[in-house]
């Protein structure tokens, strides 16, 4: 069996499979660590609401949010999310 194929099999089935963060490319051996790490990117959303700081992945979501939450209603104060730093 070619060595390359052995490596692939190890990566697919072994415990050494690195979980790769799609946001920053960081790799983790354990899924739990990877999942914990994903939380550090929760505030990395591209579109953020100027009024309450909520983050959204698309401008449409932000527009919908602005319409639903901030327009035509009394402005509601949302507590800002705390940025929790996680050491993997
Ligand atoms: Zn990351
Ligand atoms: Zn808002």
Automatic annotation (TrEMBL):
Q: Which GO terms describe its molecular function?
A: DNA-binding transcription factor activity, RNA polymerase II-specific; RNA polymerase II transcription regulatory region sequence-specific DNA binding; zinc ion binding
Q: Name one Pfam family in it.
A: zf-C2H2_4
User: Which stretches make up the C2H2-type domain?
Assistant: 19-46, 47-75
Q: Where is this region: Disordered?
A: 63-88
Q: Which domain of life is it from?
A: Eukaryota
Q: What is this protein called?
A: Oocyte zinc finger protein XlCOF19
Keyword Zinc-finger part of the UniProt annotation: yes
Keywords assigned:
Metal-binding, Repeat, Zinc, Zinc-finger
Show the GO cellular component annotation of the record. Answer: nucleus
Instruction: Tell me the InterPro entries matching this sequence.
Output: Znf_C2H2_sf, Znf_C2H2_type
Q: What is the lineage of its organism?
A: Eukaryota, Metazoa, Ecdysozoa, Arthropoda, Hexapoda
Q: Which SMART domains match?
A: ZnF_C2H2
């Amino acid at each position: 069996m070619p060595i390359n194929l052995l490596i692939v099999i190890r990566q697919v089935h072994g415990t050494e499979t690195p979980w790769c963060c799609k946001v920053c490319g960081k790799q983790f051996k354990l899924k739990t660590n990877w999942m914990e790490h994903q939380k550090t990117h929760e505030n990395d959303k591209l579109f953020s609401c100027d009024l309450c700081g909520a983050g959204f992945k698309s401008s449409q979501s932000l527009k919908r949010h602005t319409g639903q939450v901030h327009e035509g209603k009394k402005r509601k104060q949302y507590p800002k999310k705390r940025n929790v730093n996680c050491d993997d």
